[in-house]
Design goal:
Strands 1-11-10-6-7 form a five-stranded mixed sheet, with no helix packed on it. Strands 2, 3, 4, 9 and 12 form a five-stranded mixed sheet that branches. Helix content is 13%, strand content 46%. The longest helix has 21 residues, at 4-24. It is mainly β.
């Protein structure tokens, strides 16, 4: 009986310590998540592997461009968000395939596939070290998501232990147009 009490006490203390350690350890997804670097629209935001700057943001109801010599016009029930970005690679060639908008609700909106073939899309380019690369990112999202947006850029969706740049988009700097024309020289 005398040995049962100290053994029970030691098991209870060990259990309490393990419970404390489990509750204070971050989840695996957070430990292996992206390495984020944040900045504001207009600033050059640099991570270890690449940097980016948002030059211009345009909001429109209709976009127009030429594809294979044919005029293409797309409308949306929401809003087209066109983001002009200048990207620079660090020491290695890399694509910037993952571009996402985090809207006001926290939902994530990936680049739309409805504008594939539009000129100057950044997702169709590869960023070379030492050479600035400019391009457009095209998103289609609900109008209520336009407040307090952020642009997330990385080499792949859901980067683990890789760089991700987060750029806060300023609502006051978004140009509003009924029809935006995408050309070889951008917006």
């Amino acid at each position: 009986m005398r040995r049962l009490f100290p053994a029970s006490l030691m098991i209870a203390i060990a259990g309490a310590i393990l419970l404390f350690l489990q509750s204070t350890t971050p989840p695996y997804a957070m430990l292996t998540g992206p390495i984020r670097t944040s900045g504001a629209q207009g600033d050059t935001v640099a991570s270890r592997t690449f940097s980016a700057r948002v030059d211009k943001v345009v909001r429109a109801k209709t976009i127009a461009y030429k594809r294979f010599g044919k005029d293409v016009e797309r409308e949306t029930s929401g809003v087209w968000l066109l983001v002009a970005v200048e990207a620079r690679a660090g020491s290695q060639t890399m694509p910037i395939r993952a571009a996402t908008i985090r809207g006001a609700s926290g939902r994530l909106y990936r680049q739309t596939r409805r504008a594939d073939g539009a000129p100057q899309l950044l997702s169709a380019k590869t960023v070379q070290p030492g050479l600035p690369t400019t391009g457009l990112l095209v998103f289609e999202l609900p109008e209520e998501e336009l407040a307090d947006m952020s642009l997330l850029l990385s080499g792949q969706y859901g980067p683990q232990l890789q760089d991700e740049i987060v750029i806060a988009l300023d609502d006051r700097k978004i140009a509003v147009r009924d029809r935006a024309v995408l050309g070889d020289d951008g917006l």
